[in-house]
Structures are given as C-alpha cells and as structure tokens.
C-alpha cells in the first residue's frame, strides 16, 4: 500500500502530501492497522504521527513509588450491610478523585474473561477476506469492524483496530456476530449486564441516592462492546494506541490483557493502570459526570503504542446512544441545592454522542460544550 512508504513526518510538513488520499487508501483496504503490519511496514504512515500538541503532553509517572488507581474487592457485597457500606465508600472516594478503579471478586468467571480476550484475538487474526465482510462506517449496523471511528476527523490516527458490537437493549441476531467470537460475545454481554447493574446500584448509593436511582434513569439500559486490537508498532514513540480522551457514556467496564499501556491523567501526570489478572477496570463516563453535576469524575486516559503486541482490550460502554430514547439528561435534582447549582444543561444522549463523534479524539472534553 502506498501509505506504507511515506517518510514518518508530522502531518502538514510536505506541500505535496495528500493526507485525504492516504486516509482513503488505508480505509478502502479494509485491512486496518493489522493489514499494515502484515504487509511488513517498517515506518508508520504519516497520518498516524502524533500532533505537536500531543508531543508535549506531560510525561508518564516516573516516581520510584508510582501512583496506582484504587483496587476494590467486591467480596461480601450481597450478604453484609457493613461490607457493602465499605465498598460504597471506597467507590465514592475512587469515583470522586480518580474516576477510575479496578474491581476484583466481581463475579465474572476468569474463564469468561480469558475467552473474551482469545475471541478478540481470533477475529482479528482471521483472513482479511473474513474481516472485510464486517468492515463498515455505517453506524446503523449493529456489528462493525473498522480502524479509527474518527479516522477523517482526528488530527492523527491511532494504532488500533476495533470490532463494535451493539449488544443491548436490542442485540444483533447470533448469526450477525463473527463466528470467531460469537458465543463468547453473547456470554460476555450477559456478564456485563449483571455487573453493570451492580455497579450502578453502588454508584447510586455513593451519591446518597436510592440504589435503583441510576437504573431508573435508564443508565444501565444499553451497552456496546468494543473489542480493541493494538498490533505491535514499528515506531511506537511516534503514535498512540488511543489518543487522550474521556468516554462519552455513563460507565465503562474494561477488560485488558497483561501487556499494559493504559494510562490515566491524574494530578497533571500520566499514571499506568497496571494489569491485574482477573480484574476489571471501571471508569466514570462523561454522562455520569454530567448528571452527578461534577461530583463523579470522567478522567482522561490514553493507550500507548508498543513494540510488543498485539495488545488486546475489551471495553463495555453503558450508553443509550443506540436506542431511540428521547430522554433528557441533566444534573440530578436530588443532588442540587442553593450551594450546588446545575453546571450543565439537559441533553439527549444521542446529541451528546453526535457532538463527541463529530470532533473525534482531539484531547478536549466534550463536557465543556454542554455547560450552562
């Protein structure tokens, strides 16, 4: 492919560089980033090069005693009021200060987690002809394979391919899902529905609300599973696996393999989220920060590119963006007072998502656009 032969220079440094032509050639190959790797590229295409703004982001945490996101053990959550109270308090502290935490003893079998990783690997390592059947940018489809949802909007592409599966509230027919991950995708979705319900109860309690409050607001009604595949990169210092961003949902449950690379932006530095076998990473999304009136924090995060690969992660986004809901979401009235006036205007989830997608992963929070 022609893009593989370009010198690795920042976009815009050459007057004869046709960025759009290169993007279209890459997109129309329908082979994704893995297709470049399989073709033996030694230099990444120019449109993957990080922008100057990204080049000057704060350095990663180099402290000899680095910060770690909280790890919360969910053991005893159903049969001990005292233990449940402790867990709620831990989630409250983590969600208000970090916006990220890991959970262990969460009830999802380790075998399911491992098979979800392997199912993602199997799909991405299928022949190109198989994957091309799913490659599309048509958001009306419930199953989509593509590289960079914001390929034509972002300043720099990310070194990542993704399989999107819109699993709730109206899941695809089993035959619509790729055979390589069909059974595990269905089972994993069931597990995420159960765990998501529990987490929304705990977050409701952390906000001082009735346990079912967020569920009654339909925050748990829909979810999409994004299976990410990050191939080994020949020039990882020049690009990112995923650019700096926060998530445009209520809540994200992330399964990551043992390679690492996920970083959260905390106290003006990048903190590594260390992989823990059997753990799941939980993070607050933009919409939950909005309805909590900034009580809970949607933290910016990114994924580094790596010589080692492939890195695999699976994100479950809880959002109603893909259902026809016209419900308006604004700061929860029970959380407001004379001293805590609403910060955001009401918005439909689909309008929030449309704005988020239109700007791409530009390193800027979409939340500021919806402030009063």
Would you spell out the secondary-structure blueprint of this structure?
Layout: H1 19-29, H2 32-38, H3 52-55, E1 71-73, H4 81-97, E2 100-104, H5 110-124, H6 128-132, E3 143-146, E4 161-168, H7 182-206, H8 213-216, E5 223-230, E6 240-245, E7 251-256, E8 262-266, E9 269-272, E10 280-284, H9 286-291, E11 301-304, E12 311-318, E13 328-329, E14 347-348, H10 349-359
Parallel strand pairs: 1-2
Antiparallel strand pairs: 2-10, 3-4, 4-5, 5-12, 6-11, 7-10, 7-12, 8-9, 8-11, 13-14
Helix pairs in contact: 4-7, 5-7
Question: What would the keywords be for this entry?
Answer:
metal-binding; Oxoglu/Fe-dep_dioxygenase_dom; dioxygenase activity; 10 helices; 4-stranded antiparallel β-sheet; alpha+beta; 28% helix; disordered N terminus; Jelly Rolls; 14 strands; DIOX_N
Strand order within the widest sheet?
1-2-10-7-12-5-4-3
The CATH class designation is: Mainly Beta
Strand content: 15-25%
Would you count the extended β strands for me?
Answer: 14
Enumerate how many helices there are, as a single number.
Answer: 10
The CATH homologous superfamily name equals B-lactam Antibiotic, Isopenicillin N Synthase, Chain
Radius of gyration: 20 Å
Order of helices and strands: HHHEHEHHEEHHEEEEEEHEEEEH
What's the structural domain tally?
1
How much helicity do the residues have? 25-40%
Task: List segments where confidence is low: pLDDT < 50 over at least 5 consecutive residues.
Answer: 1-9
Q: Structural class per helix/strand content?
A: alpha+beta
Distance from N terminus to C terminus (CA atoms, Å) equals 48 Å
Largest sheet: 8 strands, mixed
The name CATH uses for the topology is Jelly Rolls
Mean pLDDT: 92
Basic shape: globular
CATH structural architecture: Sandwich
């Amino acid at each position: 492919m022609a893009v593989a032969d370009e010198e690795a220079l920042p976009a815009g440094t050459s007057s004869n560089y046709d960025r759009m032509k290169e993007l279209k050639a890459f997109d129309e190959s329908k082979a994704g980033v893995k297709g470049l790797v399989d073709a033996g590229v030694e230099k990444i295409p120019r449109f993957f090069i990080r922008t100057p703004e990204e080049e000057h982001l704060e350095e990663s945490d180099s402290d000899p005693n680095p910060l770690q996101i909280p790890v919360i053990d969910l053991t005893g959550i159903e049969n001990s009021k005292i233990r449940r109270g402790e867990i709620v308090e831990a989630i409250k502290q983590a969600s208000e200060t970090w916006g990220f935490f890991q959970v262990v003893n969460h009830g999802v079998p380790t075998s399911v987690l491992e098979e979800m990783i392997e199912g993602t690997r199997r799909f991405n390592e299928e022949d190109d002809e198989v994957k091309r059947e799913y490659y599309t940018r048509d958001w009306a489809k419930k199953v989509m394979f593509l590289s960079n949802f914001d390929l034509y909007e972002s300043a720099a592409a990310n070194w990542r391919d993704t399989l999107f599966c819109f699993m709730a509230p109206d899941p695809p027919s089993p035959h619509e899902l790729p055979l390589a991950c069909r059974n595990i995708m269905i089972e994993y979705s069931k597990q995420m529905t159960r765990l998501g319900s529990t987490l929304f109860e705990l977050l409701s309690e952390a906000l001082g609300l009735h346990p079912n409050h967020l569920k009654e607001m339909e925050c748990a009604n829909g979810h999409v599973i994004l299976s990410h595949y990050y191939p080994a990169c020949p020039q990882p210092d020049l690009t990112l696996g995923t650019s700096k961003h926060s998530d445009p949902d209520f809540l994200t449950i992330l399964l990551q393999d043992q390679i690492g690379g996920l970083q959260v932006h905390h106290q003006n530095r990048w903190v590594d989220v260390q992989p823990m076998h059997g753990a799941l990473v939980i993070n607050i999304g933009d919409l939950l920060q909005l309805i909590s009136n900034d009580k809970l924090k949607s933290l910016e995060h990114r994924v580094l590119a790596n010589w080692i690969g492939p890195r695999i992660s699976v994100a479950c986004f809880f959002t109603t963006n893909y259902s026809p809901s016209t419900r308006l979401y604004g700061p929860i009235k029970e959380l407001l007072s004379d001293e805590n006036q609403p910060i955001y205007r009401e918005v439909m989830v689909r309008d929030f998502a449309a704005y988020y997608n239109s700007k791409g992963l530009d390193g800027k929070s979409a939340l500021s656009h919806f402030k009063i």
